[in-house]
Amino acid sequence: MAARHFLTLSDMTTAELEDVLDHASRLRKEWRNGQTRDTLKNRVLAMIFEKSSTRTRVSFEAGMTQLGGTAMFLSSRDTQLGRGEPVEDSAIVISSMVDAVMIRTFGHDTVERFAAASSKPVINALTDDYHPCQLMADMQTYRELRGSIKGATVAWIGDGNNMCHSYMNAAEKFGFHLNIACPEGYEPSSQLMEQHAERITLVRTPEEAARGANLLATDVWASMGQEDEQKAREKAFSSYQINPALMTLADNDALFLHCLPAHRGEEVSADMMEHPASAVWHAAENRLHAQKALLEFLILNRLD
Ligand code: CP
Ligand code: NVA
């Protein structure tokens, strides 16, 4: 049987995503009650990082250990991948030795090529185009704190980047409407805009996007790999900040999410992080639980 991969949210059906999130919430409770499980005993996850990470590395590595398995950190700086060994050759070899592979890299085509040659499940842990693991944690958080997101309105304020793209996929999968507010020249992929046209409204001001929304989300103005654009982006995005004043336009029960790391004073005001609507720390912890559920789903083909 061909391995199941998780390169974008589109790799799973809505029912599968909901099942994984239900399981993630169970795992969250177990973890908080001090219960342990060994469903992935003797299983190994290879983690390939070509970009920096705190949450992703810690959550996958801790998650595998908590399920009885192990995780192996592979940096492109000291594997043959960094010296030009073809992605496909690396995929054949690595997947012959482990039970799943997680990759954080630049071009999305790299994870697609790796997955095509891999005999084991491949998980996208962020590419320039998508960050589906973060969306699993964000969706888990919303449903734990507010219930189903179906029919809700989500406001994405800021760059039309990898996180925005995954929110666009999530709008389709989870049945919410997405208002995207971004400056000209920083829109999300036009192909995704067309694909999800009925679920998305593109506006130019944060206020238009935030009005009546149930969830406000944002991300840094310059993503990893765009460090040279920081100054130009600071100018273009200067009015695209989520702060308590913007939150007053949203629904009274609206939540605020940010995948982190956050740049206080840029895309988010310092006081927004601890605002009563902020669920950023809850969502950060949920990276652990959502990915443990995802690992069980992909490696065992079932949720125990
Ligand atoms: N949100 C997120 O993916 O964080 P890291 O870059 O620290 O992994
Ligand atoms: N858009 C950000 C997300 C970091 C988790 C980046 O790609 O750097």
Automatic annotation (TrEMBL):
Gene3D superfamilies: Aspartate/ornithine carbamoyltransferase (3.40.50.1370). GO terms for biological process: citrulline biosynthetic process; L-arginine biosynthetic process via ornithine. Its EC number is 2.1.3.3. Pfam families: OTCace, OTCace_N. The keyword Cytoplasm applies. It is an enzyme of class 2 (transferase). GO terms for molecular function: amino acid binding; ornithine carbamoyltransferase activity. Residues 150-297 form the Aspartate/ornithine carbamoyltransferase Asp/Orn-binding domain. Residues 4-144 form the Aspartate/ornithine carbamoyltransferase carbamoyl-P binding domain. InterPro entries: Asp/Orn_carbamoyltranf_P-bd, Asp/Orn_carbamoylTrfase, Asp/Orn_carbamoylTrfase_sf, Asp_carbamoyltransf_Asp/Orn-bd, Orn/put_carbamltrans, OTCase_ArgI. L-ornithine binds at N162, D219, S223, M224. Carbamoyl phosphate binds at S53, T54, R55, T56, Q80, R104, H131, P132, C133, Q134, C259, L260, R287. It catalyses: carbamoyl phosphate + L-ornithine = L-citrulline + phosphate + H(+). It is found in: Cytoplasm. GO terms for cellular component: cytoplasm. It comes from the Bacteria. SUPFAM superfamilies: Aspartate/ornithine carbamoyltransferase. Keywords: Cytoplasm, Transferase. Signal peptide: none annotated. HAMAP family: OTCase. Belongs to the aspartate/ornithine carbamoyltransferase superfamily. OTCase family. This is Ornithine carbamoyltransferase. It comes from Marinobacter fuscus. The gene is argF.
